[in-house]
Amino acid sequence: MSAMDAEGWVLAGGRSLRMGRNKAKVELAGVPLLERMLGKLSKIGLRARIAGMREPVEGIAAEVVSDLHPDCGPLSGLETALSRSETPLVMMLGVDLPLIETGFLMWMLGRAQVTGAAATIPRVLGQPQPLCAVYHRELLGGITRALDSGDYKTMTAVENAATEARLDLFEVERIAVTGVWDSAFSAHCQFMNCNTREDVATATALLAGTPML
């Protein structure tokens, strides 16, 4: 498989209540979060689209697709991506993960292509990170059923949708120490969500001496 067997999608349909403004527009070192996340997907060779967005972000030309189940959380964005994908695999990225490194994303995509798992989901400090993961289109039916039933918990829905298919949950810290991808930050830092202005300030400080997308 190659990058042509996968698409990249950024989840940008959240309400951004803790940030107090649309997170997609928030700038980190002068670059909007949405632009950063789309750039990461493009850098690893994926077509990059946006699942749900409440208002336009200036300078963003990527296609925006409205969620089929609006206001139902990240799971609705996953449904949108899987339903519109033209490839078997979909890499999902939350719009608020600006420290995720492209070397890791490329490695994770390669893992998903080799294993054929229904979902390839990293765990950091033992916690699954479903908003930075690779999903197979075969999960769509189960994801839609979960949304229709009012079950909006992403991990629960993915686990139920997989039925007999294999899920691949891997420990990022354990693999990172082998050096299979170059990393400027610890796994914990890479997966830091920018949910508040304080988070953005922290991420800005971390990026100060480390140019990256």
Helix-strand layout with pairing:
Elements lengths: L5 E6 L15 E2 L2 E2 H11 L3 E5 L12 E2 L8 H11 L4 E6 L7 H14 L3 E6 L2 E2 L3 E5 L3 H10 L4 H9 L4 E5 H5 L10 H4 L6 H11 L6
Parallel strand pairs: 1-4, 1-6, 4-5, 7-10
Antiparallel strand pairs: 2-3, 6-9, 7-8, 7-9
Give the distance, in angstroms, between the N- and C-terminal Cα atoms: 25 Å
Strand element count: 10
Q: Please give the radius of gyration in angstroms.
A: 16 Å
What is the CATH-assigned architecture?
A: Alpha-Beta Complex
CATH topology: Spore Coat Polysaccharide Biosynthesis Protein SpsA, Chain A
Spatial shape: globular
Strand portion: 15-25%
Oligomer: single chain
Question: CATH homologous superfamily - what is it?
Answer: Spore Coat Polysaccharide Biosynthesis Protein SpsA, Chain A
Q: Briefly, what CATH class?
A: Alpha Beta
Helix content: 25-40%
Low-confidence stretches: none
Q: Helix segment count? A: 8
The count of domains is 1
Question: Biggest sheet, open or closed, and with what strands and sense?
Answer: 8 strands, mixed
What is the helix/strand order? EEEHEEHEHEEEHHEHHH
Overall average pLDDT: 88
Q: Structural class, from helix and strand content?
A: alpha/beta
Characterization of this structure:
- It contains eight helices and ten strands.
- By secondary structure, it is an alpha/beta fold.
- The protein has one domain: Spore Coat Polysaccharide Biosynthesis Protein SpsA, Chain A, CATH 3.90.550.
- The strands form two sheets. Strands 1, 4, 5, 6, 7, 8, 9 and 10 form an eight-stranded mixed sheet that branches.
- A hairpin with a 2-residue loop joins strand 2 and strand 3.
- 43% of the residues are buried.
